[in-house]
Amino acid sequence: FANAVSWERQISGRSADGGQWANWVRRRALRLLMPAAGYVIVIALAVVGCEITHVDAGDLSQAAWGVALHLWFLAAYGILLVCTPILFAAHRRWSWRVPVVMAVLAVVIDAAVIELHWRLVGWANYLLVWGVFHQLGFAWHDGTFASWRRPAGLALVSSVTLAGSSGSPMTNERSIFSTSTGSFESRPREE
Asked: How far apart are CA 4 and CA 95, in angstroms?
């Protein structure tokens, strides 16, 4: 939603930098990365403090995993940010079809990773799954969901997302976008 509002302002000429894509990306990225950098600095200082006080390495490793969990999405979001002009144009042309196609591709890739062990291809799902929600923000902004179909559409998207993120009951393996570590390796579920 926010990228739709901001990019629309950029291309309409209401931006101070005259609508240049690179300046827009830089501004948007800095607005995200500056608070994230502050977070990383605070965590780094905490780690140094833990090292000085000889905190158990296992506990420190578990804490590091928890901290990284908050930051993993920055790469996917950064790529979506760079692709916003193309994604916004696609939304203007094909509307709700864009996130539907992205969701279908994510499910197909998920199946390929789980069933065919195409792990490298699975990395695309970071962009596709987050891209679906990015595109839904565009749709929310322009009123695509403003009709009577909105509740039904949101229920459908939520149901598909929930079903897709639960993994494959036939192979007892997790969906790649439901793993708690963010890893794209298929693993048996822990029962």
From this structure: 13
- Enumerate residues 6+ apart whose C-beta is below 8 A from 139: 91, 95, 96, 99, 145
Distance from C-alpha of 25 to C-alpha of 190, rounded to nearest angstrom: 41
How many whole angstroms from its chain centre is CA 102?
A: 12
- Quote the tokens at residue 173: 């393996």
3-state secondary structure (DSSP) of residue 188: strand
| pLDDT at site 180 | 39
* For residue 121, pLDDT beyond 50: yes
**To which residue do tokens 């279908």 refer?**
104
Q: Is the dihedral of CA 89, 93, 94, 95 positive or negative?
A: positive
Q: Which of 127, 163, 141 is nearest to 96 (CA)?
A: 141
Tell me which residue has tokens 């101070």.
16
* 168 CB-near residues (< 8 Å, 6+ apart): 111, 114, 115, 175
**How far apart are the C-alpha atoms of 6 and 14, rounded to whole Å?**
10
Q: How confident is the model at residue 178 (pLDDT cuts 50, 70, 90)?
A: very low
Share of the chain above pLDDT 70, in %: 75
What is residue 168's predicted lDDT score, i.e. its pLDDT? 45
- In 57-96, alpha helices (H): 57-69, 73-94
Question: Is residue 101's pLDDT more than 60?
Answer: yes
Model's pTM, two decimal places?
0.69
